[in-house]
Q: What sequence folds into this?
């Protein structure tokens, strides 16, 4: 069986949760990071001319959430009942609701509104959910794609410029969760060596 290849830019952005799914499972993968603009030979492989794009044997997939869903199923991180699977997907879709307004904010006022109003409003909901679930996992009683996806979202805030991390600092349960997931040995090793990128 050939080693899977994940194609993306040299950025965390829409590929990082998939990378983290590979990392947690311990499965080897080629982390193909294109320069900008997207290399034409990579674009030509993809169904929509966009990355992320995954090649895993006969399986060829675009759309970040579809790729994450495939990897989560493959590594048994997608939940263990129809309800759990739907709940896991529910959390995996949450980061997109943060990224849309974040990337749409084009001036200082909009950035401030995102940091001081929009993001904290969402984070307060996530904090409440996690407290209700006991503080460890968003779904069930073991680590799933939901945890990895929300970990990556909180981590994104830690990595961004303009002190974006301030938006998550008022939420101790989310901060403790982020710290705990980052300390999982596979993640700790990966995060120590991860390329530092703007996004
Ligand atoms: N809905 C898609 C969006 C994919 C997307 O917008 N990809 C961008 C990078 S984040 C891209 O490939 N841009 C390069 C281009 O269009 O030339 C997903 O979640 O994967």
A:
């Amino acid at each position: 069986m050939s080693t899977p290849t994940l194609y993306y830019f040299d950025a965390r952005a829409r590929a990082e949760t998939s990378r983290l799914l590979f990392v947690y499972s311990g499965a080897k993968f080629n982390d193909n990071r294109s320069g900008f603009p997207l290399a034409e030979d990579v674009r030509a492989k993809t169904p929509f001319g966009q990355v992320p794009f995954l090649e895993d044997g006969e399986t060829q997939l675009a759309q970040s959430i579809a790729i994450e869903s495939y990897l989560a199923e493959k590594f048994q991180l997608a939940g263990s009942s129809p309800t759990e699977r739907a709940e896991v997907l529910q959390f995996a879709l949450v980061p997109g609701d943060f990224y849309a307004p974040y990337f749409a904010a084009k001036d200082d006022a909009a950035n401030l509104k995102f940091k001081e109003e929009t993001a904290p409003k969402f984070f307060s909901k996530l904090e409440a959910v996690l407290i209700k679930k006991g503080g460890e996992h968003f779904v069930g009683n073991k680590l799933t794609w939901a945890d990895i996806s929300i970990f990556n979202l909180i981590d994104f805030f830690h990595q961004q410029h303009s002190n974006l991390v301030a938006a998550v600092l008022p939420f101790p349960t989310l901060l403790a969760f982020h710290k705990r997931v980052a300390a999982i040995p596979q993640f700790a090793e990966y995060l120590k060596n991860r390329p530092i990128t703007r996004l």
